[in-house]
Specification:
Blueprint lengths: L2 E3 L11 E3 L14 E3 L24 E3 L12 E7 L8 E6 L4 E5 L9 E2 L12 E3 L8 E3 L1 E2 L6 E3 L7 E7 L2 E5 L5 E5 L3 E4 L15 H6 L54 E3 L4
Antiparallel strand pairs: 1-2, 3-4, 5-6, 5-8, 6-7, 9-16, 10-13, 10-16, 11-12, 13-14, 14-15, 15-17
Length: 274
C-alpha cells in the first residue's frame, strides 16, 4: 500500500494525495455479491431533510460482506483484493472448496492464493477468524464481535487493530483502537491481523468537488445564520456565537452525551483517551 502525490498541473491537484491502489488486483466486483444501495439524500419517508449536508455523490452498489465468518472449518482461497466504495478498508473475495464465494474485510498482508479458515481448528495466522478463547495473548486482532454470532462490529475501518490483553473467566480484555480497554465474551470471534489500507489517513482530497463525489454537501457556519435557524446565529456584527452547540441545542466540545446508566459501563475497564 502506498500513496501518490500528484503533480500540480491544476490548482486542485497541487495538494492532492491519492491512494496508490497497488495492492488491488481487480476493478470489477463479483456480481453475485452485489445489491442496490439507494441513497436517501438525508430525507425521511416524508421527503423532509432530517440529516443536513448530505446528497448527490456517485452511484454505489453495496458489496455483501461476511462479517460473521460462520463457514467453520472449511478452507477458502483468497482470489482478489478489491476496492469497496462503502468503506475505507479494502475487501477480499474468498472462494471456498464447495464453490461458494464471500467477501471479507481484507487484513494487512493478505495475499492472493492464501488460504483462510475460521473456527476452533484455525491457527492464529493473518486472515483467519477464531474465538477469542483460542487466540494467544498479545495478538493483534480486528473485526471483533461484541456479542456472540452477531458479526464483527469493532476495529473494522482502514488501518485499525485491537490487542487481546488478558483472559479471565468467560471474558477477555481487549485494548481498542480508541484507547478504551473493555471486556468482551471469549465466545465472540475476531480476525487475526490489522485491517488493510493503513495509508487511508494520509489521503488529501485537494478540492471541494471530491467531497461532492462522496455525497457531502457544503456546510454553512452556524455563526453566519439567523437566530431562527441555529442557536449560535444572530447578534450584531461578527458575534462569536456563544458556546458551541448543535442545531438542537446540545453543547459541543466537552459536554458528555453518554448515558450515566448505560448497561455496558460495567464492561469498560478504562475509558478512551480524550
Amino acid at each position: 500500500m502506498s500513496v501518490r502525490k500528484l503533480k500540480p498541473v491544476t490548482p486542485a491537484q497541487r495538494f492532492r494525495v491519492v491512494n496508490g491502489f497497488d495492492s488491488l488486483t481487480k476493478s470489477k466486483p463479483e456480481k453475485s455479491l452485489l445489491i442496490p444501495n439507494n441513497s436517501s439524500g438525508g430525507r425521511n419517508n416524508k421527503g423532509k431533510m432530517t440529516v443536513p449536508h448530505r446528497g448527490g455523490g456517485h452511484k454505489r452498489r453495496y458489496r455483501i460482506i461476511d462479517f460473521k465468518r460462520n463457514k467453520f472449518d472449511v478452507f477458502g482461497t483468497v482470489k482478489t483484493i478489491e476496492y469497496d466504495p462503502n468503506r475505507s478498508s479494502f475487501i477480499a473475495l474468498v472462494e471456498y472448496k464447495d464453490g461458494e464465494k464471500r467477501y471479507i474485510i481484507a487484513q494487512n498482508g493478505l495475499k492472493i492464493g492464501q488460504k483462510v479458515i475460521s473456527g476452533k481448528k484455525a491457527t492464529p495466522e493473518i486472515g483467519n477468524s477464531l474465538y477469542l478463547s483460542e487466540i494467544p495473548l498479545g495478538t493483534i486482532i480486528s473485526c471483533i464481535e461484541l456479542n456472540p454470532n452477531k458479526g464483527a462490529s469493532l476495529a473494522r475501518s482502514a488501518g485499525t487493530f485491537a490487542q487481546l490483553m488478558a483472559k479471565d473467566g468467560k471474558f477477555g480484555t481487549i485494548k481498542l483502537p480508541s484507547g478504551e480497554t473493555r471486556m468482551v465474551l471469549l465466545s465472540c470471534m475476531a480476525t487475526i491481523g490489522a485491517v488493510s489500507n493503513s495509508d487511508h489517513q494520509l489521503i488529501i482530497s485537494g478540492k471541494a468537488g471530491r467531497s461532492r463525489w462522496l455525497g457531502n454537501r457544503p456546510r454553512t457556519r452556524p455563526v453566519a445564520m439567523n437566530p431562527v435557524d441555529h442557536p449560535m446565529g444572530g447578534g450584531e456584527g461578527r458575534a462569536s456565537g456563544g458556546h458551541p452547540r448543535s442545531k438542537k441545542g446540545i453543547p459541543a466540545k466537552g459536554y458528555k452525551t453518554r448515558s450515566k446508566s448505560k448497561f455496558s459501563d460495567k464492561f469498560i475497564i478504562e475509558r478512551r483517551k480524550k
